Amino acid sequence: MAASSQTPLRGRQAEARRNDERILEAALEVFTADGRAPMSAVAERAGVGQASLYRRYPSKHALLSRVCERGMTRMREAAQAAIAAVDDPWDALAGFLRWYLESGTPRLAGLLGAFSPQEHLFELAHETNEAIQALVERTGKAGRLRGDITGADMTLIMTQISAIEATDPERAASLKNRYLTLVLQSLALIDAPELPGPAPNAAELERPWREQHRSSKEDT
pTM for the full model? Predict the structure, then answer.
C-alpha cells in the first residue's frame, strides 16, 4: 500500500534482497507456528543454505528482531499512506485493513515469548499504533466510523481474523475475507449502541512485549 522511494536494485543486490525477503517471510511463518523451531527450519522454508542465513542473521534473536522491525515498519508506512490519501477516509481505512490482513503482519503477535525485543522495537511499535489511531480518528471525524472504536481495537480484530484456519489456504482466505467484510459493515454502523466496557489502547498492546523484555533482563 505504501510506495517505496528506494532506487531499484540490480544483479546481485536484487538477488540478495529477494533472498532476504524469502528468509523474513519464512521466519514469520516458521516461528509463529512454533517459537522453539530451529534456524535450520527457516533456511529450509526459505530455500537458502544455512550458511547464507547465518551470514545475514547470526542468531535467532537477530532474525526475530528484524522480522518484527520489518513488519511494524510496513504497518506504520501503510497507515501513514492511508492517512495522507486524498480519497474518501472510509475507503482509505478499509483499504488499510484489507492490506493489513493480506500482508500477514498481524501474525507478529504470535512471536510474543519467542525472543526479548529491544527498546527500538517498542518505539517503532508505538509509532505504528499512533499511526493506526490517527487513521481511525480521521475516519471518525468524517462521520464514517462509529465513535467508540480505537486503533487498538483494529489491531486486536485483525489479529483474531488473521488466526482463522481452514482445511486449505484458499478456504482460509475466503473465511478471512468474509469476517473482515462483516467487521467493516459493523464499523460503519455509526448509530449502533455503544459497545460495553472501556476500549483498548496502545499501552495495553505494548504491555505484554514490555513484560517479556523485563522478564528476560531479570533472567540475565
Answer: 0.84
Chain segment 67-96, per-residue pLDDT in tens: 999 999 999 999 999 999 878 999 999 999
Give the DSSP letter string of 19-46: HHHHHHHHHHHHHHH-TT--HHHHHHHH
Cell numbers linked to 111 = 512471536
pLDDT of res. 3:
44
- Alpha carbon distance 3, 220 (integer Å): 41
Q: Which helix (H) or strand (E) holds 178?
A: helix 169-187
DSSP string, 88-145: -HHHHHHHHHHHHHHHTGGGGGGGBTTB---HHHHHHHHHHHHHHHHHHHHHHHTT-S
Distance CA 171, CA 142 (A): 35
The amino acid occupying position 151 is G
Report long-range pairs for 194-198 (Cβ below 8 Å, ≥24 apart).
Answer: 194/148, 195/148
CA dihedral 56, 103, 6, 8 (to 10 degrees): 80
**CATH-assigned architecture of domain 70-219:** Orthogonal Bundle (1.10)
Return the C-alpha cell found at 143: 462521520
pLDDT digits (tens, 9 = 90+) for 7-45: 555 677 788 888 899 999 999 999 988 888 999 999 999
With beta carbons less than 8 A apart as the criterion, state whether 30 and 45 touch. yes
Angle at the Cα of 180 from the Cα atoms of 176 and 182, rounded to 5 degrees: 120
User: Where are the domains positioned within the chain?
Assistant: 70-219
